[in-house]
Amino acid sequence: MDIKERIAALSALGQYLENLNENTRTKLHLQARANNNWFTPENVDTALKGIIGYLQKDKLQEWASQYPIKDQNKKVGIVMAGNIPFVGFHDLLSVLISGNQAHIKLSSQDTALIKFIITELTEIAPSFKEQVFIKERLKDIDAIIATGSDNTSRYFEYYFSKYPHIIRKNRTSCAILTGNETSEDFKGLAEDIFLYFGLGCRNVSKLFVPQGYDFNSFFEGIQHYQGITHHHKYSNNYDYNKSIYLVNGEAHFDNGFLMLREEKQMVSPISVVYYEQYGSEDELKSILDQNKEKIQCIVADNWPNSQPFGNAQYPEVWDYADGVDTMKFLSGL
Q1: How confident is the model at residue 153 (pLDDT cuts 50, 70, 90)?
Q2: Which of 20, 207, 279, 303 is the most buried (most CB within 10 A)?
């Protein structure tokens, strides 16, 4: 398949996903939930919406035109994460658009959804069966893209260092508040925090606020997410973290479904968001620079290279995890 054929097939996949019939959608929801209790129908549908956005024909054409695609058919291993639905799809898409083979090691937490995508794609374009392979072990490959935690990244670096590689570690996202936020800003920020239960690297887990910031407007603005505690796993995390803070006498704010705790660390537990006060923009810039290797994206109203409130979980196809250009890497193999 040449690049035009690949784009046509992937665009057709996007159209198919956009028009899923209710029986197929319901079956997919059930399979996803059976595979991973965090994968609610709402979150699966949100992730599907993101994939459909990637697969717009004009976007794929614009994206691909930026790279010297050579159809080199290299064997690229992909170690997928499973923290949120379809999280490994962008790597798969990048490998296919770049004219290479995808040799996929699925996460045990997200097998049903990725297999569904591959099945539908190969039905649309059977030629992709020669480019997509699911593997238990990755060997005889030419390059590797591996996503995991700080701990698993050390394993990846040990075993895959001899190959050209992209190895991703833990990252999280943060938001900058000034005190001038509107109710709509907080409504968007609530999505940035709670979508996927806070499990994604693009979820906001840290707030930077001015000295003496009043959180009342923030709590009022996120109140529409109070039903999140109806999910038993989230509720269990909330109850556990709350009990730890109460037993240890650790200061925190609590609105009944989210806790705020002042902390310099970037990555917070589920049901908790950390906050840190800043005295000036220069001080904030310094803090962000010190933590740049842990930050996936910044949500703010007016800050360089930031995302608007509510947009953290909706990257474009040319937005890359960890700021590493996957397509540049693949087209240079």
Answers
A1: confident
A2: 207
Domain membership flag for residue 331: no
Judging by beta carbons within 10 Å of its beta carbon (0-12, 13-18, 19+), is residue 190 exposed, middle or buried? buried
CB proximity list for 73: less than 8 A, separation 6 or greater = 99, 100, 101, 131
Helix (H) or strand (E) holding 299: strand 295-299
Our count of domains for the chain comes to 2
Start-to-end CA distance of the chain, whole Å, equals 19
User: Which band of pLDDT confidence, cut at 50, 70 and 90, is reported for residue 154?
Assistant: confident
Q: Are residues 240 and 258 in the same domain?
A: yes
Name residue 6's amino acid.
Answer: R
Q: Which two structure tokens, joined as six digits, stand for 41?
A: 């129908």
Judgement on whether residues 32 and 43 belong to the same structural domain of the protein: yes
pLDDT at 158 over 90: no
Q: What percent of the chain has pLDDT over 70?
A: 100
Q: How many CB atoms lie within 10 A of CB 63?
A: 19
Question: 150: pLDDT confidence band, cut at 50, 70 and 90?
Answer: confident
Distance from chain centroid for Cα 82: 10
